Model the fold of this input.
Amino acid sequence: MKKTGIFIAAILSLVLNACNSKMTEVNPLLEASNNPFGAPAFDKIKNEHYKPAFEAAIAQGKAQIDSIVNNTEAPTFANTVEALEYSGRTLTNISSVFFNLNEAATDSVMQSIALEVSPMLTDYSNDIMLNEKLFARIKSVYDSKDSLKLNPEQARLLEETYKGFVRNGSNLAGEDKAKFKEINKELSQLGLQFGQNVLAATNKFFLTITDSSQLKGLPDYVKEMGAAEAKEKSVKGWVFTLQAPSYGPFMQYSENRELKEKMWKASNTKAFKDEFDNREIVKKIAGLRIERANLLGFATHADYVLDENMAKNPKTVNAFLKDLLDRTLPYAKQDVAEVEKYAQSTGFEGKLMPWDFSYYSEKYKNEKFAVNDELLKPYFKLENVQTAIFALADSLYGLKFKENKDIPVYHPDVKAYEVYDASGRFMSLLYMDFFPRASKRGGAWMTSFRDMSVEKGVEKRPFVSLVCNFTKPTETSPSLLTHYELTTLLHEFGHALHGMLAEGTYPSITGTSVARDFVELPSQIMENWAFKKEFLSSFAKHYQTGEAIPDELINKIIAAKNYLSGYTNIRQLSFGINDMAWHSLTKVPTTSVDAFEKEAIKATQLLPAVDSTCFTTSFSHIFAGGYSAGYYSYKWAEVLEADAFSLFEEKGIFSKEVAASFRDNILSKGNLMDADVLYRNFRGRDPKPEALLVKLGMGKK
Done:
């Protein structure tokens, strides 16, 4: 929820007194923090604090809305639009803490609380968005906007606020308005349940090996990781899970085809035909999204979502995806044919199955380029990588990072840093949480505990959190990253920069609160440095010998950069195409979820389809996250970043001039202007789509 609000002491005091009559201790979620910069009191927050805090903050927020609605003065920007922007501030802070921790450090109690408070929050949001008197005041201000002499930021907030109300049902009447409220409430519940099912299904499966002969092909670091996981689970032997740091290397290196098939099928049947089955939830979500879109006058959910994005409509997105598919599919087929030919040269018979591909493509890569994760990992010690990324941020943007061990964190793995710019100005807190655990969902993401804002003249800088699932340290070695994990960390750090370098007054239009197909530009552009010699040679040293990474090895990384680029591009397109298929529907399909998926992505199928598998039921990005009808944005932003990074390549990859322009025109601006305007302000022109094909080695320079 992006709307925030001011603290009304008298009202909150009454609510707190009622709340505290039921509690023997003060609720840290409702107290002003005494921590540096007002950081959340993670060391004091307990599960029993959440629901009372939500109840108190909702009551406070409702009182603030009532004060706006019942204001006898004529509606103005200040007493209506700005007052609304700062309403519900306490609730926003509590929600940020709870829902971020529910992703990164959850338990069964938190999951139950989430299901309980989610409809409360949906009701609260609906009560605001569907409040006729409140919307009438906002519309009054909006209708007179041309005479108000607003500055650009105020004008943008007014525009976005009015549009947000319309998109959230304010123009609906009677039964339609009531139906809209019920749909939103049910969707919030279903999204939470979907995510919980995926996490439970991921945690349920693990492969236990007690016969050492079944470890053939696995590098020492993978075996050590498996032994550490077994020790953690108190079982004998070696354990491998569906978490990426465990699953990926096992599939790449294991010579046991039977076990790889078992692992692959487990990964591709998560929350499908088991006790955590998401199939009915998928159809319910799809149906409710169609119904909501129709109520608002849109033909499909995709039409509704894309109206706010750079792409504007499904026709543009589908044309974009089809064009990329058509232009890159021949390269992808060639990639698969080469790997299959290599596999056959080693004695493999028949057709490669999906569980074979990682193994043979990794072996072929090693033979073709003489580079692999086992060779590279010793040079990518996590601490060294982090230091290098901090140094890169310093070189480009003048940022300094200082660990503060006095700031409470929500898990022992997490570290907190103060971030300052070159002038010594405090910019942000940065929380970094690197390792997988059963209480954390898979993947990597950036989020925030507080967005940038200025309230009553007081600047409140962001609290940014960067969460990953990297290889854990073992008893014999530190955390050593694969090159892919290095690239992932750079990606997420790009999102973090977008949050940390935010400027502006109003939190709903600062930082990463931008169009979905624009938000990946700051993250994806950072990935380029993972393939630049000047950056890699600045930090990559062998964790045991201290020897600098040889130039020869860096050259191999660069040479292998576009290895399987066709294959990986098509794989990414398949996700976007599946997403658009589900969200371009005008009615829920009568076919099964897996049958619908297979039909939707059949043009992208490069390896044999496997019956009784389905990735839609664990596609959290679009059914539990914010990427519905938006997964294409990764590819869309790839075009933007390929074109944008070409300016760094032209002027120098550490160019302070280009970095300053990128900061001033992109990173600091948030949603102050439309994304296409921001991009033109930086690049001086619209992006050239050919830049992506050049980057992937499929186009002319």
